[in-house]
Amino acid sequence: MNPIHTHYDNLKVSRNAPPEVIRAAFKTLSQKFHPDRHGGDARSTQTFQLITAAYEVLSDPQRRRQHDEWIARTERKMQREAFTAAEAQSRRPWNGRERRRKPWPEIRTAGAVAAVTSAGRLRVPARVLALWIATILVTVMLLTLART
User: Fold this and answer.
1) Do 79 and 65 touch, CB atoms closer than 8 A?
2) Residue 15 φ/ψ, nearest 5 degrees
3) For 9-28, what is each residue's pLDDT tens digit?
4) Within a 13 Å sphere around the CA of 56, how many CA atoms are in the beta-carbon half?
5) Contact present, 115 and 123 (Cβ < 8 Å)
6) Rounded Cα–Cα distance for residues 54 and 60 (Å)
7) What is the mean pLDDT of the segment spanning 63-68?
8) Residues 6+ apart with CB under 8 A from 102
9) How are strands ordered across the β-sheet holding 112-116?
């Protein structure tokens, strides 16, 4: 997902920057890219106009709020499009030639068979889990007795 370019990026400030920081960034960048400083260079003039437009929007609270809402809408739209594309790719039809995956592959561990779930967690048989819990309880009881 490509991030959108905003007025915050033009002034090189964070989205939650206070007005003082925005003003300081504008002053610094406008002095650096002022056309008089570069002999009327077209590129510096364009950059200066971009910086000035960004400052005009971000210095006005109402226009800044509208700009933040536009950013949020655009990011939500991009996320929906990315999710839709990923979902469409994952739902391709089964053509009969490819093998279907098992729901969770088996893993052999020290005499017991465990399985890995689709979330990547290890599924442990009940008797092994009961032994672990009993071991933990005995350890806690021994530590409690040792402290007294």
Assistant:
1) no
2) -70, -20
3) 999 999 999 999 999 999 99
4) 6
5) yes
6) 10
7) 95
8) none
9) 106-109, 112-116, 122-123
Per CATH, which fold does 7-90 belong to?
A: Helix Hairpins (1.10.287)
CA distance 36 to 33: 9
Contacts of 56 (CB under 8 A, 6+ apart): 63
Q: Please state the domain extents for the chain.
A: 7-90, 106-147
Report the share of the chain in percent with pLDDT over 70. 73
Non-local CB neighbours of 35 within 8 Å, separated by 6+ positions: 41, 44, 45, 48
pLDDT band at 97 (very low <50, low <70, confident <90, very high): low
* Closest to 109 in 3D by CA, of 89, 99, 95, 123: 123
Residue with tokens 């960004």: 54
91-117 per-residue burial string, b: 16 or more CB within 10 A, e: under 16: eeeeeeeeeeeeebeeeeeeeeeeeee
- 50 has pLDDT over 80: yes
Mean pLDDT of the chain: 81
